[in-house]
Amino acid sequence: MKRSAESQEGHGDERHFKRVSRQLDSKILPPHSRRDGGSYTGPVPRTFAVRPTTNFTGQFPFFSRPRELGHFSLEIDRSFVNDDRHLKHYYPPSKESDLDLDLRQGFETFVKRDDNVKERLNNVMKWIIHNKQHFLKPERTVGVHYDTETDDMIESLGIDFIAWRGHFTKFLCTPNENREGWEMAVTLFRGTIYISEVETEQDRQHRLEMNHWEKQCMYGGYKFEQYVTSDGKKAPDPSQPVNNIEAFCTVVRSDLGPFKLLYSGEVDCLQPGSTLKPPENYLELKTSRKWYTHKNESSFYRYKLLKWWAQSFLVGIPEVICGFRDDDGVVQEIKHFKTMEMPKHSMGSWDGSVCFNFLLKLLAFIKSVAVIDDPSMVYLFERKPGESVISYTEHRADGQQFIPEWYISAFKNDSSASSAEAKAI
User: Fold this and answer.
1) DSSP state at residue 424
2) How confident is the model at residue 23 (pLDDT cuts 50, 70, 90)?
């Protein structure tokens, strides 16, 4: 990337933001979405072009530093808890080379999450309900008693897009990805666009047909986390069964151009003793095959590092710690990668500015399409593997709805939502 880290994180002066916002209004926003209130005069395109990527070159768009609004934990039964009980602490080995961390150990006792259960955005929506003080009007939250049915309602979140961090990661990687496709369900509700991933047939088949080696590699990532994290009170205990069910998730706010974003992502651990505040004291843990040849190393920087950068940059995690395993699944070395330094190692194969300009224009396209404010209305966006366009179809009352009634009712009044919310949570 040509721009400085400060510019990437949106720390330029206010003039930069205003200039970029004006450019966005005139160049990427559909006429009916412009701030001048101009009317819509033409048909919305049915597709969005991924190629050529030169359409997305230029300066890095305004992206504000991600700010943590809150967090939540998920229990062994995947129940939602509005606290940080499952936030782990990084517990590094006494040395970071000549290690012998067997990532296959305990594979037979792996307690695995049921991938057939699709939680969609449910846990993010539960967090919103539990933390509605972030979205109520200020005059309704300062020492005033209300007793009408509408006093506790959320009128509007004041957010343009809500998603999981992984959804935006897939969008960011799309200009450089040809082999994998994706499908995203989109709904406009109370002025906010909700994005929820739909498992593609290709992904489903791959999940169901994973061979033993692939399953061990997947397990190895969770095993590595067990080796190097703890609850902060005692050392890691790798003799215990590994589970990928319990989790800790951060909820962050950021602005991309004119759009206000709220998204959540799972966090592996925090840096103990850090004086920084979340999310800047969080760490991302990864595993990767060791570099046997220069080609292995080049491929790592050109391809794998892009996804790592997108994941961490989106939520403001400053560092990724990777355990490099041999072909027997044993981690022999640990390396550290600074998020802000990753783009300069891309060897010209990817550009963070292209990724974020693409995301910005894609969100503008989605906003131009999703104009019917109705939770039963779903727009299904799809990028098929290898295709140069993103297309969409419209669905209503055909089983695609993903915003549940207990969440919808929370926008009416708390009393009518309480029983449904309790059952859902």
Assistant:
1) H
2) very low
DSSP structure class, residue 44: P
Quick: pLDDT tens for 72-108. 999 999 999 999 999 999 999 998 888 999 999 999 9
With respect to residue 300, please indicate whether it lies within any of the assigned structural domains.
Answer: no
Please tell me the pTM assigned to this model.
0.86
How many structural domains are present in the chain?
1
Q: Is residue 60 part of a domain?
A: yes
**b/e code 52-76 from CB counts within 10 Å (16+ = b):** ebeebeeebbbbebbebbbbbbbee
Q: Is residue 169 part of a domain?
A: yes
Q: Across-strand partners of 195? A: 186
Straight-line distance from the first to the last Cα atom of the chain, in angstroms, rounded to the nearest whole number: 43
Structure tokens at 376: 């039963």
Angle between helices 165-173 and 352-369 (to 10 degrees): 110
Q: Is residue 406 situated within a structural domain?
A: yes
Contact 56, 358 (CB under 8 A): yes
CA neighbor of 93 nearest in space, from 228, 206, 205:
228
